[in-house]
Amino acid sequence: MNKQVLDIPVLNEKLTAELQSLDKNPLRNSSWKNFLQSGFPSVKHEEWRFTPLENSLKKIQKISSADSVSLPAEAEKIIASLEPIDAYKIILVNGKPISNSVNTPDGISLLSLKEAQIKFPEIISSHFGKYLNTEKETFNALNTALTNDGVFIHLKKNSQTEKPIHIISVHDNREEGIYSTSRILIIAEEGAKAHIVETHISTAEKFSLQNLGAEIIVKPNARIEYHLIQHFSLLGKSEASVIDSRQVVLEKDSFCNFTTVSMSGALIRNNLHMLFNAQNGEGHLYGLYLPAKNELIDNHSLVDHAMPNCFSNEFYKGIMTENGKGVFNGKIMVRKDAQKTNAYQNNRNLLLSDDAGLNAKPQLEIFADDVKCSHGATSGQLDEDAMFYLRARGIGEAEAKKLLTLAFAEDVLVQTKHEGLHNQIDKWIEEKLSV
Amino acid sequence: MLEIKNLHASVNGKAILKGITLKVNAGEIHAIMGPNGSGKSTLASVLAGKQDYTVTDGEILFEGKNLLDMKIEERAHEGIFLAFQYPVEIPGVSTVNFLKTAVNETRKAKGLAPIEAKDFLATMREKMKLVEMDSKLTSRALNEGFSGGEKKRNEVFQMAMLEPKLAILDETDSGLDIDALRIVAHGVNTLRNKNNAFIVITHYQRLLDYIVPDFVHVLSNGKIVKSGTKELAFELEEKGYDWVKEETTH
Q: Would an 8 Å CB–CB cutoff place A408 in contact with chain B?
């Protein structure tokens, strides 16, 4: 073991015990070996420099069991009010769906992964685990090794939904130190169209850690609008944490708009990877993160242009309050075959307190010669002239700050294109700023 | 209504206002003229409470209360309004939402309940007519992408909505064509009554053809060097500011 690795013997024992209790399969076994080889990264690891995991990992006491789950009463009330209210909903508790299937129109399947293994064995075997990298990414390896259920969404050729699909993921942290595994597989076949919302909430204030792995395959001409929302402190300050790794694969002429809104959580790490696997793909990555007291939100994205004539646009905004810490690490890779690539990246940050912090690292790696790429990162305070203007009209300092901060978030939120969601997030931001 | 006594103010240690004394009564319009750099806009900013300026001496009383002790928003609640020379563009804040917040915060300060939505809309429609403002502008982000004329009309529109006791117009005429100037002046003249007052800051006499002042003051090098009636403005237009400067240095 090299020095980039954290050694937490108690946790290793628990994980080993957990794996032995699961049935053996080759992917799981190879993933487990990969994990054992790489272990958990320390802050000496380049990709984890600003996101120390040690204290969190040490708090893990129990691996969430694979048995059937029921919905905690604490979560019910929140779920009833979550936008989009009118949606096809699947609810997970610590990564495990509370029901095996959800009624959806023809062409749309919304199932537990377990159920999907029975109903769609070919699709599962040709897609599951084929996209998330389990060799280089240790959390993917661990996730794949421990996955035994999750969410499966299949959109048949040319299908589309009137209503959004809503994945509601409840992190049950009423007990201290729960570690859970969550897995999502989404396949949009040729020409399919869908709006998917995924909301993560927690039930209590205690520490928990979820390792989430998601594979989202967008076949030729398919279009996916995706909104990932992480808000663990809806019932009061929560120490729920998540390491969220996603691989989006865009095939020919496909489109994906992926928006990540990280409202609250003790530690949130989003590894969003988007691969342009064929020509003419269009991908948008929008992000909004609001770390407040004792919160760390880290967005590590990779936009991988492997093929020519694709367009990507990444736009992330951070609002840091109290001693909240934000990390933005955005890498654009343009491989040598990816001529005529257009790739843009922009990261803007608002530091609303002297104790707030931010580390931004934009990275461009370009191996093709005929491309248009740009990136930029800024951080600053609220505009003083704008503050003066608002206050000179009688708007108090706190209210003026709120207005300007909401305005700052607006050009990301406008991407939700869903009034209910947009208003809900506006309201959350106002609440968060009022604390 | 307003009493400025021996006001001295500086920015970054540099003295800009060097002893201004001015009294404005309800029902009056005062014009403040002067060359560039004479301190006209500084005076407007100090009245509104801009924090870049330090008052080093003197006092300002507004209806007997010490204005300099008040926060920016408190001055607005008391009835002071500054029409900005360069209105700030604020992307992401809609004009309607901004105005509603401004109206309600002022009402809250006076112990009044928030305005009813339909009353607010009716008032807004009425006041927009006054400055011939396109209703599309109010649904757009505040001043964002507005032309120079639209921004100035928006200032007068906001003034009409907030109904201040004392309005300070800081070079509202700059960058306006003659039609826009007429519209802005019409707005001010309509709002004018015996209970409110205006301080009109301008570089040129032109605006004063449309907004007729009761008094004209000439500001030079941080001091009021000459005061008179509207005829003083004509004289300035004819002879230029050097005339005043020369006359006062002799």
A: yes
The DSSP secondary structure of A255-266, one letter per residue, reads EEEEEEEEEE-S
Q: For A179-210, how does the pLDDT look when each residue is reduced to its tens digit (9 = 90+)?
A: 999 999 999 999 999 999 999 999 999 999 99
What's the pTM value of the predicted model, to 2 decimals? 0.90
At position A133, the amino acid (one-letter code) is: N
The reply to whether residue A392 touches residue B91, judged by beta carbons under 8 angstroms, is no
CB-based burial of residue B97 (10 Å sphere; 0-12 exposed, 13-18 middle, 19+ buried)? middle
For A403, the enclosing helix (H) or strand (E) is helix A397-413
Chain B residue with CA closest to A386: the answer is B88
Name the more confident of A173 and B37.
A173
Radius of gyration of chain B (CA): 18
Count the residues in chain A: 435
Give dist(CA B32, CA B236) in Å, integer.
12
Per CB-CB distance under 8 Å, the chain B contacts of A406 are 92-93
- Could you give the CA distance from residue A282 to residue A280 in angstroms, rounded to a whole number? 7
Locate the DSSP E strands across chain B.
Answer: 2-11, 14-24, 29-33, 53-62, 65-66, 80-83, 90-94, 141-142, 166-170, 197-202, 215-220, 223-228
- A433 Rama class: left (phi>0) / alpha (psi -120 to 50) / beta: alpha
CB atoms within 10 A of CB A118: 11
Geometric angle at alpha carbon B98, from B95 and B104, rounded to 5°: 135
CA–CA gap between residue A241 and residue A239 (Å, rounded): 6
DSSP calls for A381-401: ---HHHHHHHHHTT--HHHHH
Beta strands in A30-175, from DSSP E residues, in sequence order? 40-41, 62-63, 88-93, 96-97, 108-112, 151-155, 165-171
What proportion of chain B, given as a percentage, has pLDDT over 90? 72
Q: Specify which residues B5 forms β-bridges with.
A: B59
Answer for the pair B109, B74: CB distance below 8 angstroms, yes or no.
Answer: yes
Which pLDDT does position B166 carry in this prediction?
97
DSSP codes joined into one string, B149-181: HHHHHHHHHHHHHH--SEEEEESTTTT--HHHH
Is A390 in CB contact (< 8 Å) with chain B?
yes
The torsion angle over the Cα atoms of residues B93, B73, A385 and A327, rounded to 10 degrees, is -60
Q: What was the ipTM of the complex prediction? A: 0.95
Q: Is the CATH code 3.40.50.300 the one for domain B2-249?
A: yes
Helix, strand, coil tally for chain A in percent (to 5) = 25, 40, 35
Q: Radius of gyration (Cα) for chain A, nearest Å?
A: 21
Q: Is B96 on the interface with A (CB under 8 A)?
A: no
DSSP state string for A242-257: EEEEEEEEE-TT-EEE
pLDDT score for B131: 87
DSSP conformational letter for A83? S
pLDDT tens-digit map of B10-61 = 999 999 999 999 999 999 999 999 888 899 999 999 999 999 999 999 999 9
Q: Where are the domains of chain B?
A: 2-249
Structure tokens that stand for A138 in this block = 């240790």
Amino acid identity at B94: S
CB B216 within 8 A of CB B9: no
Q: Which chain A positions have a beta carbon within 8 Å of B51's beta carbon?
A: 388
Which member of B88, B105, B141 has the closest CB to residue A385? B88
Mean pLDDT of A385-396: 96
Phi, psi of A301 (to 5 degrees): -115, 150
